[in-house]
């Protein structure tokens, strides 16, 4: 997957420049919305795309754990952003891994995933990046990531389809290659990936 290119600028400079451009866009559309450019700029920098500037959360493995088996965390909610249209894709992520050197705190697992989601990208790239990052922070090659999301670029434009979902999967280590290994994930893959489905 091609890495996302970013430039380093102070947060305040980014907000000023974004606000100026948003104001120009609104003027072109014939809109005079007082305060909106500043609010949009703050939202882009501090919320929607905060993963571009901030550092990933620090992760500590609980090495005292002697758990031998698979850890499965289901339906972690995420909001990310399509890099083609800069509109949300909203869904859930399911993760499975086999501990080698310890387990991770559940809140930290969610923090890592949400940090990676806060940038413009493709769902396929995000799924792959989550798997790679978890492989590194968990110190295990045995990682599976499944994402199911709805895309506002499909829901609100073009075909205007409010019902379809996109599912992406990455299986690494002992989770990949072979019916028996895939069958071992059956409880994970057969359950709904969305709270609403």
How would you describe this structure to a colleague?
- This protein has 197 residues and is α+β, with helices and mostly antiparallel strands.
- It folds into 2 domains: 11-48, no CATH class; 61-189, GTP cyclohydrolase I, C-terminal domain/NADPH-dependent 7-cyano-7-deazaguanine reductase, N-terminal domain (GTP Cyclohydrolase I, domain 2), CATH 3.30.1130.
- It is 37% helix and 22% strand.
- The protein contains 7 helices and 7 strands; from the N terminus they run H-H-E-E-E-E-H-E-H-E-H-E-H-H.
- Helix 1 (11-28) packs across helix 2 (36-48) and helix 3 runs antiparallel to helix 4.
- The longest helix is centred in the first third of the chain and has 18 residues, at 11-28.
- The chain starts with 10 loop residues before the first helix and ends in an 8-residue tail after the last helix.
- CATH homologous superfamily name of the largest domain? GTP cyclohydrolase I, C-terminal domain/NADPH-dependent 7-cyano-7-deazaguanine reductase, N-terminal domain
Q: According to CATH, what is the class of the largest domain?
A: Alpha Beta
CATH topology of the largest domain: GTP Cyclohydrolase I, domain 2
CATH architecture of the largest domain: 2-Layer Sandwich
How large a portion of the residues is in β-strands, by DSSP E? 15-25%
Number of alpha- plus pi-helical segments: 7
Strand arrangement, major sheet: 5-2-3-6-7
Key traits:
197 residues; alpha+beta; GTP Cyclohydrolase I, domain 2; five-stranded mixed sheet
Question: Could you write a compact summary of the structure shown?
Answer:
The protein has 7 helices and 7 strands, in the order H-H-E-E-E-E-H-E-H-E-H-E-H-H.
